[in-house]
Specification:
Blueprint: H1 5-11, E1 16-21, H2 26-33, E2 39-43, H3 51-61, E3 67-71, H4 77-85, E4 90-93, H5 99-108, H6 124-128, H7 132-139, E5 141-146, H8 149-153, H9 155-159, E6 166-169, H10 171-177, H11 189-205, E7 208-212, H12 216-224, E8 229-234, H13 235-253
Parallel strand pairs: 1-2, 1-8, 2-3, 3-4, 4-5, 5-6, 6-7, 7-8
Helix pairs in contact: 2-3
């Protein structure tokens, strides 16, 4: 089966640099993948991407060594299995609020007897190898998003769920849940404290911690605090900021 470089980098205690794909376009995904990201996450929750576009984007990412990850819209077995069967090597699920949620996520992403994933890796076996069925459970990385007050209350129990590889913090939703302004980087003290608590407890349980960022300096600081999966670039935002920088340079020079 194809190597999952997420696990290779984590075994070397290195942080994964993850880009984010919100545009439903295989070519833009291909362009991003060729820039050297360790991983790229296709966002089916808040991006504009649907299931059919996802397949083309996974094919585009597959032309490189970048690890294909999918964030599904919700904890629902059908879309989880669709993303994995299409070839995702990592899966991020939003709003995991309880031990039961975490246990169901693990079940949906693992074949029997470990889980309840239905067998039919139509593209995954084609691109990841004939031994996919035997090795998928140990290669695919499963992320639970921790972004609510309820999840914070059950954090240790969630982190103790067998088969959960990583957690991923959505700072904006976590901020809202704690009564604060939704931002990625300059979070309020209450949220900063919660983030530090999450990464500390994840490390104690041997679970990888990931987080969404808006700026590279913030991502670097969070890596120093123990995060080993940091998102710091969205295709749509990079397109916008790149255009803004060029236009600003032209208009201020005239």
């Amino acid at each position: 089966m194809r190597e999952n470089r997420l696990r290779t980098l984590w075994n070397a205690d290195r942080a994964v640099l993850n880009g984010w794909l919100a545009l439903p376009c295989s070519f833009s995904a291909e362009v991003m993948a060729h820039q050297g990201w360790d991983a790229l996450t296709i966002d089916l929750q808040h991006g504009l991407v649907g299931e059919q576009a996802m397949v083309g984007m996974l094919q585009a990412i597959g032309s490189t060594d970048t690890v294909p990850v999918v964030r599904v819209p919700w904890l629902e077995p059908g879309i989880v299995m669709k993303a994995l069967d299409a070839g995702a090597l990592g899966l991020i699920c939003p709003m995991i609020n309880s031990v039961d949620d975490a246990a169901r996520l693990v079940a949906y992403t693992h074949y029997a007897p470990r889980g309840t994933r239905s067998f039919g890796p139509i593209r995954a076996a084609l691109v990841h190898g004939a031994d996919y069925a035997e090795r998928a459970d140990d290669h695919i990385v499963v992320f639970a998003m921790i972004e609510t007050a309820q999840a914070l209350e059950q954090l240790d129990a969630i982190l103790a769920v067998d088969g959960l590889d990583a957690i991923y913090i959505g700072p904006s939703d976590l901020s809202l849940a704690l009564g604060c302004k939704p931002v990625f980087d300059d979070v309020e003290p209450k949220v900063a404290q919660a983030i530090e608590h999450i990464v500390a407890r994840a490390k104690a349980h041997g679970v990888v911690a990931g987080i969404h960022n808006g700026r590279a300096d913030v991502a670097r600081a969070r890596v120093a605090k123990g995060f080993r999966f940091v998102t710091l670039g969205t295709d749509s935002r990079l397109l916008a900021t790149g255009s803004q920088d060029l236009l600003r340079a032209m208009r201020t020079a005239s």
